[in-house]
Amino acid sequence: KWYVVTVGRCTGVFYNWGYVSQLVSHISGNCHISFTDEQEAYDYYNGQKAAGLVKVHRNPGDDDSEFGPVESAIV
User: What residue stretches are annotated with the Ribonuclease H1 N-terminal domain (predicted)?
Assistant: First the structure.
């Protein structure tokens, strides 16, 4: 499965649910969806990004060393 995160600590297309769950857990309004086809996942993500619906949300205490700098959190 491919996982698309459009609202979370980092956004993009990912293959590992364990990592995705860290990106979206305890994030109010998180948004993620799964696809079986990689290209469909990228098409969906790029469409959401073009529509301005991709957002990074960090909670107080979220560590940049774990999730990377906010500036690079939108792929």
Answer: 1-44
Q: How open is the CA angle 18-48-11, to the nearest 5 degrees?
A: 30
The domain segmentation of the chain, as residue ranges, is: 2-72
pLDDT tens sequence across 25-74: 999 999 999 999 999 999 999 999 999 999 999 989 888 888 888 888 88
Hey, how many other C-beta atoms are within 10 angstroms of the C-beta on 64?
A: 12
Buried b (16+ CB within 10 A) or exposed e, 27-47: beebbbeebeeeeebbebbee
Q: How far apart are CA 21 and CA 52, in angstroms?
A: 23
